[in-house]
Amino acid sequence: MSLHVDNYGSGAPLLLIHGWGMHGGMWGGVAEKLAEHFRVLAVDLPGHGFSVGRDSSRHSGEVGMNPDLLMDSIVDQLSAQFDEQLAVCGWSLGGQIAQRWAIRHPQQISRLALVASTPCFVRRPGWECGMAEETLAEFAAALQQDYTLTLRRFLALQVRGSERERELLAALRSALLSRGEPDLAALQSGLEILRDCDLRSALPDIRQPALVVAGERDTLTPPQASHYLAAQLPDARLAAIKGAAHAPFLSHPDEFVMQLRRFMENKCD
């Protein structure tokens, strides 16, 4: 069965992939602004939003499965959903999925925009640009007790330090369950991917033109991770948005749309 995809506008296709625990509706008015220039597709990942119960592969919700296989299962479902070449814009976990997609099915991805994303979400020896694994483990444990509260806590981390922090948090919380409750197994699997995924060694193989968008106040995926991405990808440029945290497309929508338009239209600064 197919995943749910919102379709806006006309022109060159641009696919938006949301982050952990979210859905395609979280892109809000940015999708509509982009649709003035492109055909915008906003997907609900397996087990999220209107795609709950619609994915044909159990792998996307099998807790304990190898995270690489989990990621590949999601990527393959996305690849099968679309029969055309796409520009892909991924936010946070969606950015990691976009990176793996560009590696696994490179002919399908024309351009890559990575928003508040990282090749490696947790800290490792020699990699300090991430969340402590113990903190992520606490989220995983709390998910079993009260997943709605856990999601709300995660939202608070995403806007921490941003301009208009309270307003953004209220908007995110309002939209969080607007498409129903996400599948608990999919949430758990997403945390396993965040815990174990490390794409650093594969970045030189991603040859598509890439835009890396960073919030300068991001505490979940620090700006250093975005700088690393932009430096390691063969054809990438960095757009750092002042005053933004982990959701720059919501806190600074006009600047975000401008940066993405210029990238899509292949304009130089």
Describe the model.
By secondary structure, this protein is of the alpha/beta class. The protein has one domain (5-264): Rossmann fold (3-Layer(aba) Sandwich). 41% of the residues lie in helices and 14% in strands. A 7-stranded mixed beta sheet has the order 1-3-2-4-5-6-7, sandwiched between helices. Helix 2 (67-81) packs across helix 3. The model is unreliable at 55-59 (pLDDT under 50).
Number of domains: 1
* Strand-residue proportion: 5-15%
Q: What are the low-pLDDT stretches, counting only 5+ consecutive residues below 50?
A: 55-59
The name CATH uses for the topology is Rossmann fold
Number of strands: 7
Report the biggest beta sheet as strand number plus sense, adding barrel if it closes. Answer: 7 strands, mixed
N-to-C order of helices and strands: EEHEHEHEHHHHEHEHH
Q: For this structure, what is the CATH class? A: Alpha Beta
Strand order of the largest sheet: 1-3-2-4-5-6-7
Taking all Cα atoms into account, the compactness measure Rg is 17 Å
In CATH terms, what is the architecture?
3-Layer(aba) Sandwich
- Give the mean pLDDT: 92
Helix content: 40-55%
What is the structural class?
A: alpha/beta
